[in-house]
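Listing 4. Sequential folding, example run.
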Amino acid sequence: MKKITTLALTTILLSSLTFSTAFAFTDVDKGQAEAVSFLKDRGVVSGIDHDHFVPKGKISYAQSVQMIVKGLGLNLNTIRFSTPPAASNIYTNIPNNAWYSDAFVIAYYNGLEIPKDVNPNATITREQFGDLLIRALEKNGDFPTVKMFIEIKDEDQINPEYQGRLQRMLLYKITELDKAGKLHPKSDLTRGEAAVWIYNAIHVLDAHTSKVVAQ
């Protein structure tokens, strides 16, 4: 019975769509409440039911791509296609009728490098999510180059391809290292952490856009 219940909860977490709701979640701690509420009101995230967001639950690759695309406002508005793009022509494991297929197509054409054989139901690591998030953020404008370096105590665990973007993620203050100076790049990201990262990225983008407009 316990195994069935666990399986059911996992299925809900992996397949939940991101629609706006009109309620507050009772299981989100104070440090993540503002971010989750903000994204909920924008229709970027939803809970597994009326009261629970499950912030400590793992987030799937599909949910991550959907949240990043919606949160950072990525789209295909400036691209003209002779035939509508199909997810199955890009990815081997993304069916065209999946709720997340459009997000993966948008991500692809906006330069978010996702493996063609990605498993959409697999969990995503902190470094993978961070890399996608910074790619999405910087797709929205020319951000100034910041010649600073933040020491990461577990830097040797970071995929070299992600190094620069994870450094910029820290410099943008989208997230921060723990008290030991570690990023834990290979650890799975949680739903609550993902919400906070996207929330912070949106504010970085808004500040950058406002500055560009004012110039």
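-- end of first protein; second protein begins --
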Amino acid sequence: MPEQKHVLIVDDSLVYRRLLVNLLSQWGYRVSEAENGEDALAIMTHTPVSMVISDWEMPVMDGLALCRAIRDIEYGHYVYLILLTARESADDITAGFDAGVDDFLSKPVNQSELRARLHAGARILALEASLAAHNLRLSEALTQIEQDMQVAARLQLSVLPAHQLHYQGYFVDWMFLPSAWVSGDIFHVFPLDDHLGFYFVDVAGHGVSAAMLSLAVARQFLQGRVVERFLFDEQGNVTSPARVVSILNDRFCNEETDIVSYFTMVYGVIDPRDGSGTLCQAGHPTPFIVTPEGAIRETGSGGAPVGLLANMQWEDTAFVLHENERLCLFSDGITECEGPGDEQFGDNRLQNWLQQQRECAVEDLLPRFGQHLTAWRNEGREGERTMTDDVSLLIIERRGE
């Protein structure tokens, strides 16, 4: 035999027990013996038993109770159970299977049948061991994946701007709730010479592939202001946002592959001195400005997503951010979030809520909104539903010097 199995014989008859012990020893099995169920359990606490052949009728603890007890104990491996009995009724057989019995043998035992049942048990044990090893490898792989995803999530967070960012009379803060470890949403606010630059990107799809593309876009913006400087024109002035979006489209639009990877975005610049700004909207939800009086001004001209078609053109939209006004950029994970009756949260709810909270400080408003959206999603439901898409909200407020 390729592997010597350890078999425990449990029978209150010494003669019958010794008969089976001698027989199995001749066949190459390692064998232990016990007089009843309690003795058998005591042996199994320190002996790695692979199979148990037990009589049904025994004093102290019978075979059925022994099988139940074995199934309730975690031995670190599967134990194959064979029950010896003269019972043949369907109810008795059912009771045996319910107790965890794998096979039955009738008394008196036929040697050929016993040997065949032991071989069948050995095959089952080999399959169980193979499955356990496979599950262990899967568990180790899952642990490694989770660790890698945690690192990736920290990397993605490191690309986002600092919370409660102050820049020349402007205040920036944000909320970010990824639907998975990593997100297809990415955004930033950064000084661009004498301007304030900002972008908000939402990659199609979810998970790792979307997160990788979002980081690739973020890298382009870093290169565009530090290495290649395509965020500036030949005269050193800030490049038109529409021109920047067109450059990104040329770089991410690959017609030679069947893989479709695209993203929506808003990119813009603000002159901190007077609040005048320009932005380009490329398939992304339309940004809007909340005034101190509670009015809403949407700013954007639509446009197609980036990376779908080559040679596309986009338009710039001019806007002015007056003192105490807030420019709000967000992902469709907010507006398409489904709540009671699977109704979407929508643009109006978002705008109305931010209107109502206009007197609340931005740094306090954002966590409140996260709680509000989560409560709305779970309203009238038992248990908490996770978000099906990434949820992000970025607010730029002009506070004045």
